[in-house]
Write a structure and sequence with these properties.
90 residues, alpha+beta, Alpha-Beta Plaits
Amino acid sequence: MLSQKVIFKGRVQGVGFRYSTKRLAQGFDVIGTVKNLKDGSVALQVMGESNEVRDFIHEIIEESDLAGLIKEHQIWDIDPLTCTGFSITA
């Protein structure tokens, strides 16, 4: 299992980014959360089999309608998540 955190910067708040990310997650075998941060960026935490996590992140960054909104992103490995499903958090 792979757990990663991704911070997306750009025009990522007020454009449906979190909802689109949640919708995209339904196409992958992953769990996690996505939320807006006070600095205007969006944080994604995701866990699943390595290929599922990497493909999901790649889909967001390179293939989805969200790609054009992202100016930069950073990815870190994190401790395993304890959530179930995929949700938008405050």
